[in-house]
Specification:
single chain, 360 residues, alpha/beta, eight-stranded mixed β-sheet, 13 helices, 38% helix, hydrolase, BRCT_dom, AB_hydrolase_3, hydrolase activity
């Protein structure tokens, strides 16, 4: 039998260069209908920028993307059923650079004893979006409703309204949030914690693991759950080992967009060989001895294969690891379209929660 994802069988833009998210027969029609309302089911106009364009132009592109996509995500979130039985509070901690970091702490009201915690790192290519966005508030509260404490970290971005703060600012803030949560387990009423995030937050999730290992505090974290991780920094290359980059290019997100946002996280390209900047650089030695992981990917995502590649390398390194593929969905589609695919969204919430609970 030919492999599902390989040159022997052609899918997406490998089968038809003109294929779009809306015309690909693998796409979940509920997702396509939701995206079509905003013209996100088809090909998007080329962006008149490159990674070598002036920094101010790339920052302006990121700000525009943050405003436009943030509005769509928040509208989708507002259409989903609102979570009840969860209370969210905030606290502020001081980061290693003397900056203030807001943490959003969501707890189920019915909790009667200590619970596992999920430290959540939001998506946006480490460049845009906010933990205060409606979409992320709803996501964290939905996750908390499954019986875990969720701590959302408002880290500094490399662009947008919380930028510009390139690497390692955002990673430092995420690490500070994780370490504060671990140090305050008794006060928070938690037993242990995992780190979880999607897209850019998936890269931050995995790079926190490498930073923790490098600095000697990996034991403070029970596991890592990375969703549609944005980790290779190879989006403009011809990558035979990552066929999804071309197969699903411009399905909701494009390799050009990915590269532009990545160029803001490391604008001088001076950290292109640092595993705490890009998790996809991990060596076998970097991966050895890691705690349990889950790597979740979306079938119709340009980033699908870099996530699967990382999953396979974790397994080969002897790390207890589960791989998860969500058919019919684009990049983060299981998280974005909960208003039209609630069972898919709920399954993801249960899986993150179940992983956290399994490590107690």
């Amino acid at each position: 039998m030919a492999p599902l994802y390989g040159r022997a069988m052609a899918y997406g833009r490998h089968a038809d260069p003109d294929m779009t998210l809306g015309t690909d027969p693998r796409s979940d029609p509920r997702m396509v209908k939701a995206f079509a309302e905003f013209g996100l089911d088809g090909r998007q106009p080329p962006i008149p920028l490159s990674v070598d364009s002036p920094l101010e132009d790339r920052l302006a592109f990121a700000a525009m993307s943050e405003e436009g996509m943030g509005a769509v995500f928040d509208l989708f979130a507002s259409r989903a059923e609102e979570t009840t039985g969860v209370t969210t509070t905030t606290t502020t901690i001081t980061g290693v650079d003397g900056n203030e970091i807001t943490l959003y702490i969501s707890r189920p009201d019915a909790a009667t004893g200590p619970l596992p915690a999920v430290v959540h790192l939001h998506g946006g290519g480490m460049a845009i979006s906010s933990a205060a966005d409606t979409a992320y508030i709803r996501l964290r509260e939905s996750l908390a409703a499954t019986g875990v404490v969720v701590v959302g970290v408002e880290f500094r971005n490399s662009a947008g309204k919380l930028g510009p703060h390139p690497f390692p600012a955002g990673l430092n803030d995420c690490a500070a949030g994780v370490r504060w949560t671990a140090a305050n387990r008794a006060e928070l009423g938690i037993t242990h914690l995992i780190v979880n995030g999607e897209s850019g937050g998936g890269n931050l999730t995995l790079t926190v693991s490498h930073k923790a290992k490098r600095e000697g505090w990996l034991h403070e974290i029970a596991g890592f759950y990375a969703q549609c991780p944005y980790i290779s920094n190879r989006w403009l290359e011809e990558c035979e080992d990552l066929p999804s980059l071309t197969e699903n290019d411009d399905y909701f997100i494009s390799c050009q967009q990915l590269a532009l946002l990545g160029s803001l996280y490391d604008p001088t390209n001076s950290h292109s060989d640092d595993v705490t900047c890009w998790a996809g650089l991990a060596t076998d030695e970097d991966l050895a001895g890691m705690p349990p992981h889950v790597i979740s990917v979306n079938e119709l995502d340009p980033l699908r294969d870099e996530g699967l590649q990382y999953y396979r390398r974790l397994v080969q390194a002897g790390v207890p690891t589960v791989g998860r593929l969500i058919p019919g969905t684009c990049h983060g589609g299981d998280l974005i379209t909960g208003h039209v695919m609630p069972e898919v969204f709920d399954a993801t919430m249960r899986d993150v929660s179940g992983f956290a609970k399994s490590l107690g």
